[in-house]
Amino acid sequence: MKSHLELSRLTKTYEGPSGPAVIVKDFDLVVERGEFVTIIGHSGCGKSTVLSMAAGLTEPTSGGIVLAGKEVIGPGPDRGVVFQSPCLLPWMTALENVLLGVGQVLPGSSRKEKLRVAEEQLVLVGLGTALHKRPAELSQGMRQRVGIARAFALSPKLLLLDEPFGMLDSLTRCELQEVLLGLWRKDRKTALMVTHDVDEALFLSDRIVLMTSGPAARVGDILEVPFPRPRDRRAVMEHPEYYTKRERLIEFLEEQGPERRRAAPTHARPEPWVAESEADGSRDDALLAATVASIPSPVEKSP
Ligand SMILES: Nc1ncnc2c1ncn2[C@@H]1O[C@H](COP(=O)(O)OP(=O)(O)OP(=O)(O)O)[C@@H](O)[C@H]1O
Ligand SMILES: [Mg+2]
Questions:
Q1: Which residue has the higher pLDDT, 219 or 279?
Q2: How many other C-beta atoms are found inside a 10 Å radius of the C-beta of residue 86?
Q3: Does the global pTM surpass 0.90?
Q4: What residues does ligand 1 touch, defined as CB less than 6 Å away?
Q5: Do residues 164 and 180 lie in contact, with contact meaning Cβ atoms separated by under 8 Å?
Q6: What are the boundaries of each domain within the chain?
């Protein structure tokens, strides 16, 4: 494997009414070609900020990003991005939405070839019978499948996924994790994904980046995930190291808990349309609390 993505001393400062707020500082990460890396950390620590800089949607204040030997300056079709909501054009069908991206990366190809690529990806995500449906006719899970198909159809050098399953119920979430792993396995696209879900991180990743809470968030630790691939959910959960890894993740998140976050910059107000429970991170605290509560005690773990 070869170094593919390098984030070097990545720093982002926002100007606010009470002065500059350093959100991310000296964030260093090297991702190998074909690796699946997730970033986990408390709400508001700056995970999306890092991903957005890698996507070229947010300009770093200092530091740099190199992808496949080229500095990242601005967005480009060499990066397939999947957000929590897939931002589909409502007047276009699933196929047309995916085709839009394919047109960007295969400008010289015939329409037939572009259609073949778009259709193939939609079939792979399980939407072979919904090619001609518009977003309004699709469930949230199906829309997210379109978003994933669109990202893979670009055949990108890097996949960037920001909590792609955050809005889904747990059953759909598990299904889509399998869909994502299936696609990823096919050609091992280098992937950088943000999640709040420790089990999701353990199921999908080769390494998990534990991000400190802000201000000036950085890489706090990196956890190697040793489970063999291809992965089966049950086999992963029964792996002798599963609970040790899971407990390390929880321990880190607890260490970086509310006291630290109270020190975070307060001037950067959430957007007014963000529900208060989400804006203050309580949705994620609830997820974390549920995760902590679901860890069996050492007694329960022993056979
Ligand atoms: N455009 C902006 N202007 C000012 N502050 C911003 C801007 N974007 C993000 N921030 C601030 O940067 C910090 C990190 O935000 P970011 O969205 O990266 O967090 P996050 O870790 O992705 O959180 P979550 O888990 O809730 O999605 C927050 O304090 C946020 O208010
Ligand atoms: Mg975020």
A1: 219
A2: 23
A3: no
A4: 14, 23, 41, 43-49, 264-265, 268, 281, 284
A5: yes
A6: 3-35+43-72+204-293
